[in-house]
Amino acid sequence: MTAQHLVPPFVKHVIEVAPREPRAPLQPDRAHPGAIVPVLAFSGIVVALMQTVIIPLVPRLPALLGASSADTAWVAVRGGGRFDGLGALGISVALFCLLRGISKGADWGWASGSTLGLFAGAVVVLGVWGWYELRRPQPLVDLRTLARRQVLLTNIASAVYGFAMFAMSLVLPQLAPR
To answer: Which are the contacts of 61, defined by CB distance < 8 A and separation ≥ 6?
Structure first.
């Protein structure tokens, strides 16, 4: 069984009707927005509609759906707390170290001291940040909430789904006949 047997029929049809001639190389002096501009414009329209139409309806959803207040569950958002500046600085440093190591690892070499130092720094700072956040009365990120079963399983499922979508975007073009 070859890998082409795993491709769904509708994808084979798209591959068969796609033009076979190679595209001209992009010229660096001219911008080629392609589909980026319409996608971003559509996203902006969706966000604007969400803010003006959907969000004002949220407090009235139980009445609109004919549900009693006892049948609905709302998440309480704490207000009036203080901003955790040290927690924000800690997560910023940890994420900077992690993302800088990932983005420059191929250039610097994955086993180079700079890359490994950034990864080690990210792990250490993230550990200290987690320890600090668990002891704050009003943390920047409530790690205890993230450890609840429902939230944890939802986050894991979202990560697996995102990984699968990204993997398909890499694998599917390689299965296309040339």
So the answer is: 67, 72
Residue with tokens 């789904």, as numbered in its chain: 161
The Cα–Cα gap between 94 and 127 comes to: 9
Long-range contacts of 73-77 (CB under 8 A, 24+ apart): none
Residues near 98 by Cβ (< 8 Å), separated by ≥ 6? 118, 119, 122, 126
What sign results for the dihedral spanned by CA atoms 177, 167, 96, 120?
A: negative
The answer to whether residues 161 and 126 touch, using CB atoms and an 8 Å cutoff, is no
Instruction: Give the tens place of pLDDT for each residue, 59-69.
Output: 777 777 777 66
Q: What is the pLDDT of residues 60-109, one digit of tens each?
A: 777 777 776 666 665 555 566 788 889 999 999 999 999 999 999 999 99
Its pTM stands at 0.52
